[in-house]
Design brief:
By secondary structure, the chain is α/β, with parallel strands linked by helices. The protein contains 10 helices and 13 strands. The structure holds iron/sulfur cluster. Iron/sulfur cluster binds next to loops.
């Protein structure tokens, strides 16, 4: 396991708050036959021997970000938006993370030269309407670092939407201070997308912080990764999405697992994901139902499911990306 951690750069990290959401002690928790914790909170952060099993189709860069890099840490998959990896730091390291191979090499926050490059790029590309500030978790940065980045984006032109992608309100609610809420409010139009996978993550503390953000006029959206043994049952996802919706958080995406190295044990077979989504589609209202999607393996952007299915082979699916390219996604056991 240590070899794997060294090679793929994802050590163990979790906040005490996150661990307090679990029903079991991380040191003595029950594990399944693959060595993965049964508890859905612990399963997301405790390393397991299953990570060392690497499937031949898995990629270090499953979304093809390297091929779509426009300058250091900035990726452009779509005409109207770009994504900036602000930092490789996270409050906790999710074992299913598709950027797991990148995080260790990008630990520091964006430096001045990269922020300058971002400013120049936005100035010369008026067609960009949205900047996704991702990572890692951008809220691991100090308020001053964040303010410098957001100020740069906002000073290029007002109508750009800033999208902050974070798990902070869930894994470390104390990070959402009144000062941070004010700071984010200052840079509206700004929206926050929360990575949230299980109803157990909806703590009282999180819900209070979500309310503070919403009260400041900051829209909240969720994205959820379909994870084997964690949330791959319609009743779990129904509870998650309906509660989020009631709390004013828009269920935005349900993602089929990416082909990230060492994450096969988390991936739900696509056939089962489609069956789960069919149940959700029947049971949830339009406001509660997120879009089911997969990132095209190797690049090509998001593919909506089931619409993007172009065919099926014996042990894989053929998926049609919006640029017309066809991508193969395995049907795993
Ligand atoms: S918080 Fe996000 S970037 Fe960090 S490990 Fe989890 S999924 Fe990856």
């Amino acid at each position: 396991m240590q070899d794997f951690v060294t090679k793929y750069g994802l050590p163990y990290r979790a906040t005490p708050f996150w661990l307090s959401l679990a029903d079991e002690d991380p040191k003595t928790c029950a594990r399944n036959a693959d060595g993965v914790p049964i508890d859905p909170i612990l399963a997301q952060v405790l390393p397991s021997p299953a990570e060392a099993r690497i499937s031949p189709l898995e990629l270090r860069d499953p979304l093809g970000e390297a091929g779509n890099t426009i300058f250091e840490r900035a990726v452009r998959h779509y005409r109207s938006r770009i994504l900036v990896r602000a930092t490789g730091q996270c409050f906790l390291f999710c074992r299913h993370c598709y950027r797991r191979s990148l995080l260790s090499s990008e630990r520091h926050f964006l430096d001045g030269a990269t922020i300058e490059a971002l400013s120049k790029y936005l100035t010369t590309h008026p067609e960009i309407r949205e900047v996704l500030v991702s990572g890692g978790d951008p809220l691991t940065a100090t308020d001053a670092q964040l303010a410098a980045l957001l100020e740069t984006i906002r000073s290029v032109r007002q109508p750009i939407l800033i999208r902050i992608c974070t798990r902070a309100p869930i894994v470390l609610p104390a990070r959402i201070t009144p000062a941070l809420v004010d700071l984010l409010k200052r840079f509206r139009p700004l929206t926050v997308v929360l990575h949230i996978n299980h109803p157990k993550e909806l703590s009282t503390q999180f819900l209070e912080k979500a309310e503070a953000l919403l009260g400041a006029g900051i829209p909240l959206h969720s994205q959820t990764v379909l994870l084997r043994g964690i949330n791959d049952r319609p009743e779990i996802l129904t509870e998650l999405f309906s509660t989020l919706n009631l709390r004013g958080i828009h269920p935005y995406y349900l993602f089929q697992g990416d082909l990230a190295v060492g994450t096969a044990h988390f991936r739900v077979p696509l056939s089962r994901g489609l069956a789960i989504y069919e149940v959700l589609r029947r049971d949830l209202s339009g406001l509660e139902l997120p879009r089911y999607a997969v990132d095209a393996p190797g690049g090509g952007g998001k593919i909506y499911l089931p619409e993007g299915i172009a065919g099926q082979k014996a042990d894989s699916w053929l998926l049609l990306a919006s640029d017309g390219s066809i991508h193969e996604y395995p049907e795993e056991e």
